[in-house]
Amino acid sequence: MSTKPARSHATPRHLWLGVGLIAIFWPLNWFWPDGLTPDNLRTHWGFFPLWLGYCLTVDGLVARRKGDSLLLRDRRAYVRLFLISAPAWWLFEAINLRTQNWEYLGRGLFSAPVNILISSLSFSTVLPAVFGSAELVGTFGWLRRLPRGPRIAATPRVRLVAALAGATMLALLLGWPRFFYPFVWLSVYFLLEPLNAHLGFRALTEDTRRGDWRGAVALWVGVLICGFFWEMWNFYSYPKWIYHVPFVDAFRLFEMPLLGYGGYLPFALELHAMYHLTTGLLRLPEARGFVRLVDELEWVDESE
User: Fold this and answer.
1) Cis peptide before 239 (omega within 30 of 0)
2) Distance between start and end Cα atoms, the chain
3) Which residue has the higher pLDDT, 303 or 204?
4) Is 302 exposed, middle or buried (0-12, 13-18, 19+ CB in 10 A)?
5) Can you point out the beta strands (E) in 244-282?
6) Where are the domains of the chain?
7) Of 267, 263, 238, 243, which Cα lies nearest the Cα of 85?
8) What is the pLDDT of residues 131-186, one digit of tens each?
């Protein structure tokens, strides 16, 4: 069996649109000349087109590699990713009111309604960026060749234990945020994944019951790629975010402590669970198969 990851396809036009947006708005976010705007503000209007460029570029690369992508698959569902993404991230902003692990420099320069509007527009790019990056990772042969891992099925007992663990983590997080703040990136997943399985919505445990962890790995690698660009592009931007992370607030890569990047891994799983819970509750059955992390269902054996 061939181990080539994917055959090449025509380059879609939206890839070049994405590259163009990045080429324009990356420099504007970093090097906007002092004095052209009050307080040298620029990221409040530059963040969304920069990350829209990232989303379109990644989606175009996926289309180039496998002839299919989120945007080409269903344009309305692709727009829906942006609409679901903003309230999904606002949940973490609500939790951060208690943990205070990050803050936004320059936010106080805007009124509350303007800040909500600008922030929501920026937050809308999270889901398409992460899922697009994960699908890109899924086009590579090394991911298809991953061996089987532990088999974890969403049995009633597993669902109950996971939900209890999620509720316990959330209670500890809210009660003692200084010590249990990492649970913000675990509790939501442990609460929502068993709920998705119970309701019959798409859940990663559908794959792990067969020992197939490639979807999870695609999400992990994809979100780390996004995390790198989030933190890098944020570094010289303004407004920007900074972190206050107890006990590990050292050895930073950009503004983020190195150990903090580990939080991106469960965060990707949470996004997957939140998206499928939302689309399931909205009765959008076509959304179940919209995000295709790994199209190849059979493992590739290099010895064949």
Assistant:
1) yes
2) 6
3) 204
4) exposed
5) 252-253, 256-257
6) 13-289
7) 267
8) 999 999 999 999 989 999 999 999 999 999 999 999 999 999 999 999 999 999 99
